[in-house]
Every structure is written in C-alpha cells, then in structure tokens.
Amino acid sequence: MASSIDKAIAKLDQILLAAIGTAPAAPAAAAPTKSLPTSNSTGSASTSSLPAAAAPAAVKAAAGKAAEGAREVLTTKAQIKVARIVSAEPLENSAKLLRLQADLGGGDTRQVMAGLAQFISPQQLAGSLVCVASNLKPAKLAGQPSEAMVLAAEAADAAGNIIVRTLLPPEGSQPGDLVHLDGSTAPAAYPKVLKLDEWRKVVPGLVVAKGGKATFEGTPLVTSQGLVTLPPEIPDGSEIH
To answer: Cβ distance 144 to 94 under 8 Å?
Structure first.
C-alpha cells in the first residue's frame, strides 16, 4: 500500500516538474516605462521627465509664445512715430553721438542723442524724415538728455565697412504720423513710458526684408502713406535697431 502511494507521489512529482520545465521563461528585465511629467514648485509640468520627442515641442511652443509677446508689445505698447530732424550737430565730447532736435508733430520737439556720427553727416540728417521710438524712458548719453530713439539699419559693404542708414518714411508722411504693422491699426492710446525690457523683446524681430522694406518678423512696417523702407545700399536681412 505504501509503495503504491510512493509511486503515485513520484508520478505526480514528475508531472509537476514537466509542467514547470515547459513554462515560458520570465523576461530578463522589465521593459522601460515612460515616466509621467512631474510638477515643479510652481505646479507646472517639468519637461525633464517628458519623452524625448515632447521636449523639442515644448521648447518650440515657448519660443512661439515669446514671439507672440513681442508682437503684442509692438502693436499695443511701442509707439513709433515719424519725426523731422530740425537740426543736427556733433557732440564735443563724443566721437559717436550727434545731438538732434526732432519734430514729432503737434508742437512736440525733443532732443535725441543718436550714435550716427561715424556713419551719417549732420548735413545729411538735417531736414530729413526719420522714424523714432517715442515712448521709451528718457535717458542720458554723454551727459545729455535723449528723449527718443532714432531707428536705423546696419550692414557691411563689399569692403567690410559698416554702414548705417535711418528708416525712410513713405512719401507724403508728416511728423507725428504713427508707424505700425501692415494689417493692424494703432491703438487708441499708448503707455506713457515703454519699459526697456519690453522694447528689447521687439528689436530681434526688426529686419530689412522683401526688397528693402522695414519689417517685423516678415510683416512690413507702414504709415498711413505706405511702406517704411531702407536705402538700396542696405541689403535684405540687415538688422534694425
């Protein structure tokens, strides 16, 4: 009786061993899982744990948001006006600055210190129309107050010499005319003072493009009279500042 039980147990052991031997082997290591975004101290998602493909998308989205912010500053806060240079003279204690008196229309005449002495003569500037950023906070340059900023483009000629030229308002423009993006309208009112860090957002997008037109990220700058341009010696792609 005992031997029969032993034989039955032995047979059962063989069956169990056979079953174990044919079972699929466990994987050597678990497949890596994608970690979920974690929150930083401000509660926003961190891109450090995002899948690799998501990180560039997040960077691209952030860049797009920054560009939108710069466009908003230009269209709603940065006041750019046509001005006539009433007089221009060199500054005794500076080789770079010219002291300008600029008529911004409506009886608004301001002193502007412009770093143009090495590129444009006072005689060329006097009587000309230019475009100025008119609501930046007044500053002092070489001890002289400067109440606006003349906008100009910079390039190198065939010999490698730097040339600088001011923006050209369209024919028929008058002092005080507002400069804005083509397809948009100037706001009813601008802030009295535009913060410098906000203006710095705008500057990288200001370039010469599309055949000598002054543009912001490809959109032309215009007045009510037409396109703002640059002289032909300034090539497309040149920066405006």
So the answer is: no
Residue among 206, 113, 94 at smallest CA distance from 154: 206
What total number of domains does the chain contain?
A: 1
CATH number for the domain including 94?
Answer: 2.40.50.140
CB burial readout 195-211, b (16+ within 10 A) else e: eeebbebbbebbbbbee
* Per-residue model confidence as pLDDT tens for the chain (241 residues): 445 555 555 555 555 455 444 444 444 444 444 444 444 444 444 444 445 555 555 544 444 555 559 999 999 999 999 999 999 999 988 999 999 999 999 999 999 999 999 999 999 999 999 999 999 999 999 999 999 999 999 999 889 999 999 999 999 999 999 999 999 988 989 999 999 999 999 999 999 998 899 999 999 999 999 999 999 999 999 999 9
- Displacement of CA 54 from its chain's centroid (Å): 23
- 3-state class (DSSP) for residue 165: strand
Q: How far apart are CA 10 and CA 16, in angstroms?
A: 10
E-strand stretches of 119-183: 129-133, 139-141, 144-146, 149-150, 152-156, 162-166, 178-181
Q: Is residue 179 part of a domain?
A: yes
Specify whether the CB–CB gap between 206 and 184 falls below 8 A: no
Query: Residue 160 gets which letter from DSSP?
Result: S
